[in-house]
Amino acid sequence: MSSTKxxxxxxxxxxxxxxxxxxxSLVGTTIEFYDFYVYATAAVxxxxxxxxxxxxxxxxxxxxxxxxxxxxxxxxxxxxxxxxFGDKFGRKGTLVASLLTMxxxxxxxxxxxxxxxxxxxxxxxxxLVLLRFAQGLALGGEWSGAALLATENAPAGKRAIWGTFxxxxxxxxxxxxxxxxxxxxxxxxxxxxxxxxxxIPFLLSAIMVIIGLYVRLKLVETPAFQKVLDEGEVSKLPxxxxxxxxxxxxxxxxxxxxxxxxxxxxxxxxxxxxxxAAATLDAAKAAALKAGKPMSxxxxxxxxxxxxYSRNDFLLMLIVGVVFFxxxxxxxxxxxxxxxxxxxxxxxxxxxxxxxxxxxxxxxxGFIGTQGLLIIGFILxxxxxxxxxxxxxxxxPTNVRYTGSAVSYNLSSVxxxxxxxxxxxALWQGAHGSTFLVGVYLSAMAVLTLIALFLMxxxxxxxxxxxxx
Length: 469
Description:
Layout: H1 18-45, H2 47-51, H3 57-88, H4 91-111, H5 123-151, H6 159-162, H7 164-167, H8 169-187, H9 190-197, H10 199-203, H11 205-216, H12 223-230, H13 238-245, H14 247-256, H15 258-276, H16 281-290, H17 297-302, H18 311-339, H19 341-355, H20 359-363, H21 366-385, H22 388-394, H23 401-415, H24 420-430, H25 436-455
Helix pairs in contact: 1-3, 1-4, 1-5, 1-8, 1-11, 3-4, 3-5, 3-23, 4-5, 4-11, 5-23, 8-18, 14-23, 14-25, 15-18, 15-21, 15-24, 15-25, 18-19, 18-21, 19-21, 19-25, 24-25
Family: Belongs to the major facilitator superfamily. Metabolite:H+ Symporter (MHS) family (TC 2.A.1.6) family.
Pfam family, one: Sugar_tr
Keywords: Cell membrane, Membrane, Symport, Transmembrane, Transmembrane helix, Transport
């Protein structure tokens, strides 16, 4: 990784207008994250009972989360696959392919028979694993491509600001996905939602994919990648080159993203599980009886208390929190441009470390405390996620930038996001309903990220368009 004070101004192609770049990077990641969140929400609300009907409630939930984690295992594979094509043949075509892959996989999940259907007891979960793998494969190539689309078209001195455009796809996709689930919960009965209503968000992804494809097909290659093409600097095997020449930023980038991933999936997937779990054993028994599946003795023995909110109430609380996520993602760009990526992220990650120790007092403070915890958590999420759209690509030279940023981003997803809900649920249940260890887990991940940030060099002033190995 090289750095210079002489910054070359990119020559932006006329087809890549500011509005078109913003829309193409934002729309694509919004669709991708929408599809991903649709599964994450269904994994908590309906999939445990639909795809693992014969297991107890704890095993159902952990099995659903295990399949949730399959996509994160697939993401590094997708980062190598799509990164190879993105660095060898171009950003545009690769982004179109990743979007198509995600859209098709999500649509097919909406068509999938459940394990309740005769003959599909084992086949349905197996097919869900396969389609979930395809989702992860696609997301492995989406984020870095969208980040490069924004930052490689950005004017000098505005990369961190333009880098927030694809980052906004995360909160917007979350709000659309969970807002749709909220509407369905309010308009359908529990039986209708479990029978067919959960399929609607998956099937609607087809419409959004068509819109995203239309926008992306209007673009041309970024000036940075076009420069690599013109100078004959295209890498024959990007993944080999990035591990050979850029292994240090690869490791740093992986751990720089770690606290961000753990924080987000604790704030979404885990809190939805914890927030909607019955607050008393009597309430849990009543809910199980209402669903037609009285609690077994093993389920009673394994039961731990949650907060007892209804699905609708807690989804609404999450949406309120995610609004702050979006606002502070936009705030993070100018801060990182003014103070530098390294300094701003050290301050924010230190705040995440402290935040981990507030779980017990805030969750114990009723509605105000819980909503406050979600808002604070999502504010920190926006502040830490916003600069990543510029920082991770800046760690790598142009001819391996797609692969390098994708691999580090998605390796971090395996170490952080893939296991975060699973570990958090295990810690919560192992502590008999206390969230203290869940908060300690977040703080520990923040320490690892802080170490990586202290080891990295500031990237704000490097010459992005001349940075070719």
